[in-house]
Specification:
This protein has 150 residues and is mainly alpha-helical. The protein is 38% helix and 7% strand. The protein is built from two helices and three strands. Strands 1-2-3 form a three-stranded mixed β-sheet. The longest helix has 51 residues. 20% of the residues are buried.
């Protein structure tokens, strides 16, 4: 008798389905952890940026006769922190103070680096900017709904 042996090549449909199900279960477990890690990284970056800018605002105030950045005529809050200034807070390339920041940070939750500068009662800028700054109180905070209390 001439029996041919059949060699099995490939996988059955059931075996493929089992592998796909296992991969699906693993993905369901792993993907949310990456999402949370990404969120944690953004929160950490936000906290670091807040600490840096707030400390530089206080340093500016100490060096400029208790004036907050952006109070001098003709200079914005961002310019006051990223350019050299004179003691009166005006921008001057030969000024004795600053720059306090090399570049102004971007809010990692809304990807905006603009600052809504307001004077008077503390409020929020409305979420249209990366940051909110109150020239009366010196409060600097993120201008997004989820992190405005920081």
């Amino acid at each position: 008798m001439n029996h041919k042996t059949h060699s099995r090549k490939g996988f059955t449909l059931v075996e493929i389905l089992i592998v796909v199900i296992i991969l699906g279960i693993l993905a369901a477990i792993v993907i949310p952890q990456f999402t949370e890690a990404s969120n944690d990284a953004r929160e950490s970056a936000l906290a670091s940026d807040l600490q840096t800018v707030r400390s530089q605002v206080e340093l500016f105030k100490v060096q400029h006769k208790d004036s907050y950045p952006g109070e001098a005529d003709g200079i914005t809050f961002v310019e006051a922190l990223t350019q050299k200034t004179k003691i009166d807070g005006t921008a001057d390339a030969s000024g004795a103070y600053g720059p306090y920041l090399q570049t102004f940070p971007t809010n990692p939750f809304n990807d905006l680096a603009t600052v809504d500068v307001q004077a008077g009662a503390d409020g929020l800028g409305g979420g249209n900017h990366g940051w909110y700054y109150n020239t009366t109180t010196g409060k600097f905070s993120p201008d997004d709904d989820a992190h405005s209390a920081l």
